[in-house]
Amino acid sequence: MAGGGMPTDAPGVSGGYLTGKRLIFPLSLVISLFFLWGFSYGLLDVLNKHFQTVLGVSRLESTGLQVMYFGGGYLCFSPIAAEVLKRKGYKVTILMGLALYSLGAIMFWPTAHFSTPQNQKAAFGGFLVCTFVIACGLATLETSANSYAVVIGHPATASARLQFCQSWNGVASFIGPLIASKAFFSGANANSLTNVQYVYLAVACAGVAVAVMFFFAKLPEVEESAVRSGSIVADNSEELGLDQYGHVLVQKPLRKEYNMMAGFVAQFCYVGAQVTIATFFINYSTEAAHYTSEEGARLLSYGLLTFTIGRFVAAALALVLESNFIIMIFAAINIALCAYISNAHGHGGVACIIVVFFFMAPMYPTLFTLGTANLGSNTRRGAGILVMGVSGGAVFPPIQGAIADAASTRISYLVPMVGFVVVLAYGATHWVKRGFHVLRVKGEDVPAEAVVGGEVVDAKEKRSSVVEVEDMKKI
User: Fold this and answer.
1) Per residue in 206-258, pLDDT tens?
2) CATH number for the domain including 61?
3) Residues facing 439 on adjacent strands
4) GO terms for molecular function, please (predicted)?
5) Which of 86, 178, 239, 366 has its CA 20 to 30 A from that of 330?
6) Within a domain: 3
7) Are 249 and 449 in contact (CB under 8 A)?
8) How wide is the angle at C-alpha 162 spanned by C-alphas 304 and 205, nearest 5°?
């Protein structure tokens, strides 16, 4: 493993990736991580509205939770997590993430317990610190788990595999608001932080339980040097191989991975759009459609259920259709829906937001897969950079909050529309470069050619010439 030694209890993956039944155990472990951070994210949007009521913060101030969660944790800590992943491997990185996640959840207990009407602002500051620690843990888990789900299996099904794992994230994010709507908004709890303590204590216990499971599990490690379709070692010691389209790959410096950089921008804008869609959902439903906060939280859980269904549907579609085509069409639909939402009144606008959840469901895993494709030994650091794109969730909500305070929550939904425009541009660029394919292209269906050193080189010829060089070296 580049950058560090292979853990002694972690069996390596021969041939570059696992197949068949060998995938079940490691993917099951990874799915448990997706479930944990999905539940945590589902609680975040409900806490946003709850703190407005209990702690007397404005809509703009309440977005401090998103700033700390996505900006503090993901932007600041993802590079650290990527470096740990590069040096220590997946298992150590995952355990570090679970430790930070559980610590941040436990910190909610004293913060809520000592909150009083006299120290509301200080208490909100304490919750921001707790959220930051949790976000550091989640950034670490996302850096490792997303990358692991992509590289552990065959690259041709990487997008569908990550979509499936991320679907369980959606299941948990649906359960979170459903529980929170009862725990935070019903009866005496509507103006109390008592149940916040117990909910996050349960979250901490779940994090510790999963950490124990990972500690004793033998998690297969995947070396970055394993090229998916078989590695070829050239005389300049660079690793060459074939991508899922049959194209020859040449290792490049991380700074020259322009597709990854564009993927970061698209991820930044997408997550910003996703977070704003959810963050102000309850505000939109109470203002534009006159629902109560409890009803709004329940409707948010329905939206997240739609999001979950969208993930599973997208996982199935990714087995048939090109991922870049899917994300391009879904982004175009969401642009139209956001335009309507910003001008709608009543229940129709709320219904459209719920539909937006469905069509934005596959965007994060698809962008992650497209952005980290064919990075070779840059895969783990590239994964950290793509996860840093989650920091868009810290930038977009304050902008939308300021517009909501100055104009209305309804008008503020033009902000996520901008994010979907960037996603559409990135998806369309990939679709054009890949030849306008709608159905998923398999490696054997595409001519095995690539530009190497300014010339178009057939993959088979390149392979045989490299073998000849290696044979001469042996002589």
Assistant:
1) 999 999 999 998 878 766 554 343 333 333 334 445 554 455 555 677 777 88
2) 1.20.1250.20
3) 321
4) transmembrane transporter activity
5) 178
6) no
7) no
8) 60
